[in-house]
Amino acid sequence: MKRRPVARTKRKAKPARRSRRETREELALRAGQLFARLAAEYPDAHCELDYRTPYQLLVATILSAQCTDARVNLVTPEFFARYPTPRALAQAERGDVEELIRSTGFFRNKAKSLVGMAQALSEQHGGEVPRGMEVLRTLPGVGRKTANVILGNAYGINEGVTVDTHVTRLAARLRLSRQTTPEKIERDLMALFPRADWTLLSHLLIWHGRRVCIARRPRCEICVVNELCPSARVPRLHPDGSSR
Fold first, then answer.
1. How would you label 67-82 residue by residue, b for 16+ Cβ within 10 Å and e otherwise?
2. How far is the C-alpha of 181 from the C-alpha of 60, rounded, in Å?
3. Pairwise CA distance, residues 73 & 151, whole Å
């Protein structure tokens, strides 16, 4: 008499173990290590917009919205030759400005902001770019990000962290912030890093984002912070070809 095969019950798969969430102290320690490695990798990190004066940096930063720094740097020499001061730009015909900056994109809105900004500087600030966050943000075309760029680079004032698309991307990949809006990401970064490092932090993240941690295919295999990055896809390759 044949025995009926005993039906085997399938074992339930164990739920995937969730990685333990980093404590605040562990995150702060890792953030410091990230900063040190990036600073060593990019000792010359700086704002890549070409400028000589606060006015020139302000113009270049407004032009850089939705545009590469390289493209802006192609446009600004002729722009500053024609409009060397806020007073000169304040008297410009908007159509002339539009033609000059057309290749940077959104040229109509940018021209409106530039002329309005120059008029405000000439009429309310004696032709000088202000040194305060709140007063800068009253200028046409100037939000918190642009104000941070001006204060940190033209005046050496660490009022905040400049959060652009690169900083947003790296803050998420490095798990420095779980927020999605620039204001909240900036707040998280300001809490993690010393005030004296805020401007340099932006430069380091931007440089790394442009050169290694690019948007579509991050080059994890050559990343100096690979071991510290929760999003690393592959191990880092060392000079001898190993991934130890």
1. bebeebbebbeebbee
2. 23
3. 20
The string of pLDDT tens digits covering residues 27-64 is: 999 999 999 999 999 999 999 999 999 999 999 999 99
Determine whether 145 is an active site residue.
yes
Domain definitions of the chain by residue range: 24-46+160-228, 54-154
Q: Is 164 a catalytic residue?
A: yes
Fold for domain 54-154?
Endonuclease III; domain 1 (1.10.340)
Residue of 189, 206, 196, 209 whose CA lies nearest to 28: 189
Query: Would you give the DSSP letter of residue 52?
Result: S
The H-assigned helical ranges of 193-243 are: 198-211
Catalytic residue of the set 50, 69, 164, 197:
164
- CATH fold of 24-46+160-228: Endonuclease Iii, domain 2 (1.10.1670)
pTM: 0.88
Catalytic pick from 145, 188, 197, 240? Answer: 145
Name the region of 109 (left: φ>0; alpha: ψ -120 to 50; beta: rest).
alpha
